[in-house]
């Protein structure tokens, strides 16, 4: 009650549903890419708004005069409408009040838009608590959430349609196809894929390293799946190298330093030899004195 009262005073009220979930639960909801409870309806096309009664239910109809495309959206009872009759809106704009599903943004506006949305929403949540975080830290997390794609059409690559792959791997294969086309080969097709948005839990379990995934969650399932498929761990990450007791591939543990030979300092060696000689002379003098 106290927190809601303070929030009402500082932010001008909690009338809209999108403002209720805040703090750590909101950050968790964003990073897990969950569907919000009070979901806003967003437009899939650019166009003009008009309201119609269809089958005794109120609908917002978006009509694009240039393309002739039309979309109708049911307005649920009790939802506050954010658009007016005759208003021009763009795709991705909210028609009703509520929180936006990041998966809808990905489908309608694309990967860049959903990345910007997640970063801005996380930042706004932290700023309300007086915490300043550099964007780059959030960008690293969001980039990992969006590193997987689903192949819809394998084309002339070695992928399988319907399977999930690393985005960089698919882009690399498509570049190889383009080079072959440029070299004169005909009839080749690139792989077509759909960008995926995974929550951080699923993204961590979708790693190529089964040791890293097993140390995170669902250990039994991950190890069983790895054993059935006969997986091999390339040991390129940090966690898997820590697990087996090897140097992590960072800093002086990187491969480029593995064959580096250190050269001895001749000056320091000479000083060391001289120190040993002095020590031996002093030790011999003490022994003769004792006799």
Short structural description:
The protein has five domains: 2-36 and 105-144, PTS-regulatory domain, PRD; 47-97, OB fold (Dihydrolipoamide Acetyltransferase, E2P) (Beta Barrel), CATH 2.40.50; 147-198; 207-251, Orthogonal Bundle (DNA polymerase, domain 1), CATH 1.10.150.390; 264-291.
CATH hierarchy: architecture of the largest domain: Orthogonal Bundle
Total of DSSP H or I helical runs spanning 4+ residues: 11
Unreliable stretches (pLDDT < 50, length at least 5) are 1-20
Q: Report the sheet-strand fraction.
A: 5-15%
Largest sheet: 4 strands, antiparallel
Q: Residue-averaged pLDDT, rounded?
A: 81
Secondary-structure content class? alpha+beta
Q: What is the CATH C-level name of the largest domain?
A: Mainly Alpha
State the distance separating the first and last CA atoms: 90 Å
Q: What name does CATH use for the topology of the largest domain?
A: PTS-regulatory domain, PRD
Topology as a string of helices (H) and strands (E): HHEEEEHHHEEHEHHHHH
Helix content range: 40-55%
* Record field, number of beta strands: 7
Strand order of the largest sheet: 3-2-1-4
Architecture overview:
With 291 residues, the chain is an alpha+beta fold. The protein has 5 domains: 2-36 and 105-144, Orthogonal Bundle (PTS-regulatory domain, PRD); 47-97, Beta Barrel (OB fold (Dihydrolipoamide Acetyltransferase, E2P)); 147-198; 207-251, DNA polymerase, domain 1, CATH 1.10.150; 264-291. 43% of the residues lie in helices and 12% in strands. The protein has 11 helices and 7 strands. It has helices at 2-11, 23-31, 102-109, 111-128, 135-145, 167-182, 200-205, 210-214, 219-229, 238-243, 266-290; strands spanning 47-54, 57-63, 70-74, 88-89, 148-153, 164-166, 192-195. The strands form 2 sheets. Strands 3-2-1-4 form a 4-stranded antiparallel β-sheet, with no helix packed on it. A 3-stranded antiparallel β-sheet has the order 6-5-7. The chain is globular.
